[in-house]
Amino acid sequence: MTVHLPSLWHSLRLAGAGLLAALLVACGGSSPEDPWTAFAQQRLDWQACDPDQLGEEAAHALTQLGARAQCTLMRAPLDYSHPDRGELQVAVLRVAAEQPWKRVGAIFFNPGGPGGDGTGFAAVQAAAWRYAKPDSATGQLLMQLANRYDLVGFAPRGVGASSPLTCESAELNEIQFNLSFDRSPQNVGNALRNARLEADACRTNPLSPHIHTEATARDMDLLRALLGDRQLNYIGYSYGSWLGTWYASLFPDRVGHMLLDSSMDVGADFDAATLQREMGHQRTMDEILLPYVARHPELFNLGSSAIALRATLLALAPAIKSQLFSALNFNDSALIDRNGLLLNAGIHLNALREQLPMADADQLHAAIDAHAFIPAVEENQAAAFFAHRLADRLLAAPARASILLAPPAAVNVSVRCNDLATRASEQYWIDVGNDYAARYPFFGGAATENPCLYWGAPRAVRPPLSAAATAVPLLLLQSRYDALTPVEGAQANLDSLPNARLIVVEDEYAHGVFPYGDPCVDEKVAHYFLRGAVPARLSHCTGKLLAGDVPASAARLVAQAAQESTRDQDFMARIRRQIGVPAPRGL
């Protein structure tokens, strides 16, 4: 049977218009003068996407997806309580189902943040699913998802190609240093002043009162209706779990299937999330990264004692610790070798600085070139590369600058401060920062710099989480050692949502798990979206071995390939790909 796609999409749009009319009647009807009508009955103008707006990885995915990927701008009310008070635009990317005659709906994506842009993210996911391995059961299931669902990414209001929010002022910030390693009154005072300046810059932007999770959840519901879908299917990562449960609390009867991957404690607040993150980073450092590096002295040349390595790192100069620990990546366990090489680079750079305290930039870089970091040639080259990058950051003179928060950072501040109130006491956050810096000496203390201290009342009213408990079963997915959203948050969500199911991937710290490349995880998720099947209330999957722990035997490599492992067995090939990858920010 041949299906003419333009005719099909025309039929779907007509069906969507009928659904919208039915919804308006159900809500008491509408009149031509009703300002909501212009939003609820708009036609989305789908066009070819601009790859320059989506990033390199998404642009590559677009070439694979062809005409199935299209973009549009949706008009949304500035204020849903008063839709006559203006509007803004929300950028949307849709990858149409590969087999539209089997379409069952759309899956919306949110990559986290707050402030993450999901447009390109959806294109990358769509390409990965569409071109999964067809000779494996897991690959076939991912392809079925691409066949039956539209995959929809959007830029939440304020970011990306949506109406942007920028926070700026002519005020100059204060020079401040890492709050984990410098808790002096002057440095803490500078951090608090900078937080106040950021809050003031954002609060004075007339768009910022309308940037919060409540509005984004309603934007998703408007888009769902315009697509002609009765229910919303959703995959949210990190902060995306907060957004997803907010939506489920507002519209529990409109939830289809919802995966909350690497979730925050959605019953708590952003303050708790920040503090959990400081604990989570320290735990992953102590229980995963340091023991791994100590197990592989042949790769990292840092000895075989995790305890001794920890003491060495604590003794580094504060400026080097600041640059080193901000460069580590705790989002993706496939980058663990990069982290180990960074530790080597930081420790050896500290030794060179002690040997050459008066060296200028040229002299320090020359010393790095002449230094032996690791006996193996290629590993030594990689460690030297990271030492050069750390040295550049170390030698960069700090300078005061005017306040400027680009859209992702501006949205992050506005959402956090507009969603919920914080404890408005500087001394409280100074004390908490001192406590956490002592408890978690590599990562604690940053919570002191909290712009929401100076924000005033939040703009949104969080709906009761109990409403989400009446939605269809929600699926939670979590790695045991997630540093950014620790497993305690997912467990709290399971306890507060009797309709939820939780999958925990043991011995893993990936932040953002699905797709994992392992049947235990991916097949459970795929069956959930394809058949509505849910696993046990709490289930467990075995995490993948870390790269250096994988035995090099041919039998092991064959088994690894059969399980669709995405890990490359060549150490330096991994490192070459990883050099230059920035450490992700946000929740």
Describe the structure in your own words:
This protein is of the alpha/beta class. 46% of the residues lie in helices and 12% in strands. The protein is built from 21 helices and 11 strands. It has helices at residues 5-26, 35-40, 56-65, 119-130, 137-148, 185-203, 213-226, 239-250, 270-295, 297-300, 306-314, 318-327, 336-355, 361-370, 377-395, 407-419, 426-439, 487-496, 519-531, 554-562, 571-578, and strands at 69-77, 87-95, 105-110, 149-154, 167-172, 232-237, 255-261, 402-405, 475-479, 501-506, 538-542. Helix 5 runs parallel beside helix 19 (519-531), helix 7 packs across helix 8 and helix 12 (318-327) runs antiparallel to helix 13 (336-355). The chain is globular and about 75 Å long. Mean pLDDT is 89; it is low at 1-31 and 554-587.
Write the layout of secondary structure elements.
Layout: H1 5-26, H2 35-40, H3 56-65, E1 69-77, E2 87-95, E3 105-110, H4 119-130, H5 137-148, E4 149-154, E5 167-172, H6 185-203, H7 213-226, E6 232-237, H8 239-250, E7 255-261, H9 270-295, H10 297-300, H11 306-314, H12 318-327, H13 336-355, H14 361-370, H15 377-395, E8 402-405, H16 407-419, H17 426-439, E9 475-479, H18 487-496, E10 501-506, H19 519-531, E11 538-542, H20 554-562, H21 571-578
